[in-house]
Specification:
alpha/beta; Glucose Oxidase, domain 1; 2 domains; 4-stranded parallel β-sheet; 23 helices; globular
């Protein structure tokens, strides 16, 4: 380990100063909530009897006596999400491990878990971002019975982990740990899948051929293997100290995965108030942990969704993270991983090359992350420069990582990074603020200046493409996609179309107040534009033919229209009535009407 890099130290200190009052108030609240010992000891007899009525013999007696840890299980299991299907058997596994250890565990509650891969481009996607806040509230409801001394959080995918963590931080006096399930085996190559998608967009592949490619990619239980938000979540939980070391990308339903799950139960019991090493989650997630999370995103080319989620998570812990902090750190954190869509490898290849242990070891070696943090493993981040394995007796052990990458095409050390910076930039200008991910954008496409073509629906882009109207240089402005408008859905239906046009030699960019997530790729996309069009942001005043400049080199996002003329324009409006009903959207009006701006996390808390 080396001395902390001065920029990392400076950003952390600014974050600490900015958050002083709110963080102090948060810690005061959770420390007061701890009380003395298990809260269920102070439940009335009727309350407590309800709490253990359905338990088996030993569990009922232990809960009745109330002196040993009782762990709550918050489970996002369903059969539809491949990543979450393995969780079906986790509660019974966890309860059995707890019984063997002389403690108890109960299913505290389930939280909803939608699949963005299924809802992509559909009406249901307009519920996706807000499902994060629903999950946070469901987590709080699950823990509200005051029966638990710690919690195990079972979740993987896009909004589920951020929602679980926000909810967990509202019970920040409780120790807790995230328990992953691991990625599915590798399917067809991401390069092959991408080619079939683009061929289909051009009418050169049939729907049957496309479905065959997709089914060969998403084909088994486990997390999808590309590096989108789900796998970025796993990276974050590990680099922020909420996973066991090396747990993120171990395959599901294997002896090593089960050993890690068993160890998670025992660790949380140790961290609980009746245990030997009380450590609440609200004290693990501090300014240093949040900064480490941002650093991990940059070093791996992680999901841009975390420009929303990490901000919301930090706020839940009383920490005022800003996009400027991401920007400052991006300038000094090198890109050490190339995982699809930033390369053609998948997360299994990343893990086999050394994975999180190698990445963390490399960052620590140059002072590029905080080592002196609290973690569920009981060490600082130096304890995470290890990989788990089973010894000859089947016991779980950790071994130090190699100092050499197992595959330099996927994972590299700080001495030879793929990029000198994190590939994530903030844009500012007369169109507001936005985010752009450039880790896989060609160097000659980092600055795009072209006429705007304005759309109010991503389907209209596809229709214009099919009519042959987009065979030219242009900036697609897709607005009224923000949280207050229609819930800020991801716009991945645009990706194959725009990629085809770029491959034809046209200079293309996207400007939107919507999202593109971790699967955004080679086409420059200024996303999360704020203020959004529905909030009378400047993006609502762009007209067809206006010259728009997206400049990822200098961090600018501008429309090249005389300032007086542009300011005098009446902002456009959109008829969004068709987005207000159907697929449950009528239930989410309260969320749309109260959503914060993207740079504040786009949430309702």
């Amino acid at each position: 380990m080396s001395v902390l890099h001065p920029v990392v130290a400076e950003v952390t200190e600014r974050l600490r100063e900015r958050s002083g009052e709110s963080r102090t108030a948060y810690l005061r609240r959770i420390d007061a909530a701890r009380g003395n010992g298990p809260h269920r000891e102070r439940l009335s007899c009727g309350n407590l009897a309800h709490g253990f009525a359905a338990c088996g013999g030993t569990d009922k007696q232990r809960l009745r006596e109330g002196h040993t840890p009782n762990l709550g299980i918050i489970n996002a299991y369903n059969d539809m999400l491949s990543a979450h299907q393995p969780y079906e058997r986790y509660p019974e596994l966890i309860r059995n491990v707890a019984r063997e250890a002389g403690i108890t565990a109960q299913m505290a509650g389930g939280v909803p878990a939608m699949c963005d891969g299924i809802t992509q481009g559909r009406a249901g996607m307009e519920l996706s971002l807000f499902s994060r806040d629903v999950i946070a509230m469901a987590t709080a409801v699950s823990l509200s019975h005051d029966m638990f001394d710690g919690a195990l959080y079972l979740g993987i995918c896009d909004k589920i982990v951020p929602g679980l963590l926000i909810g967990a931080l509202s019970f920040g006096h409780l120790p807790g740990m995230f328990v992953p399930s691991g990625p599915m085996p590798s399917g067809i190559s991401n390069e092959q899948k991408s080619k079939v998608r683009q061929a289909y967009a051009e009418g050169k592949a049939t729907k049957a051929e496309l479905l065959e490619a997709e089914a060969a990619s998403y084909h088994a239980p486990g997390t999808c293997t590309f590096y989108g938000t789900a796998n970025s979540n796993q990276m974050l939980m590990e680099i922020m100290g909420l996973h066991l070391p090396g747990a993120s990308f171990v395959a599901p339903d294997t002896p090593l995965r089960d050993a890690l799950t068993r160890e998670s139960v025992l660790r949380v019991a140790e961290l609980s108030a009746p245990g030997s090493s009380y450590l609440p989650m609200g004290h693990i997630i501090d300014e240093r942990a949040i900064v480490n999370g941002v650093i991990g995103l940059h070093a791996t080319g992680g999901s841009t969704n975390h420009l929303l989620h990490l901000v919301a998570i930090a706020r839940a812990a009383g920490i005022e993270l800003r996009w400027d902090d991401f920007d400052a750190l991006s300038s000094v954190i090198p890109l050490l991983a190339r995982v699809y869509p930033n390369g053609y490898a998948d997360v299994n290849q990343f893990h086999e090359a050394g994975g999180m242990g190698f990445l963390i070891d490399q960052l620590l070696s140059q002072g590029l992350m905080h080592a002196d943090v609290r973690t569920v493993f009981g060490t600082g981040m130096d304890g995470y420069a290890q990989l788990p394995q089973l010894d000859t007796n089947g016991a779980l052990v950790w071994k130090p990582v190699s100092k050499e990458s197992g595959n330099r095409g996927v994972l590299r050390g700080v001495a030879e990074p793929f990029r000198a910076d994190g590939g994530l930039r903030m844009l500012d200008g007369n169109l507001g603020r936005a985010v752009i991910k450039v880790s896989s954008v060609p160097d000659d496409r980092l600055v795009i200046e072209a006429p705007a073509i304005v759309f109010h629906d991503q389907d209209d882009v596809r229709k214009a493409f099919e009519r042959g109207e987009l065979n030219r240089d242009f900036v697609a402005v897709v607005r009224f996609q923000g949280p207050q408008a229609i819930g800020m859905p991801e716009l991945h239906k645009l990706t194959p179309t725009l990629a085809v046009l770029q491959d034809r030699g046209h200079r293309i960019a996207l400007v939107t107040d919507g999202r593109m997530s971790g699967a955004s790729g080679r086409v420059p996309a200024a996303i999360h534009v704020t203020p959004e069009a529905q909030d009378n942001g400047a993006i609502a005043r762009i007209r067809d033919g206006d010259i728009v400049r997206v400049d990822a080199v200098h961090g600018r996002l501008d429309v090249l229209v005389e300032a007086g003329e542009f300011a005098a324009r009446v902002p456009a409006t959109a008829d969004l009535s068709s987005h207000r009903f159907g697929m449950g959207r009528e239930l989410f009006g309260l969320f749309r009407n109260n959503a914060s701006s993207a740079d504040l996390g786009a949430g309702v808390f």
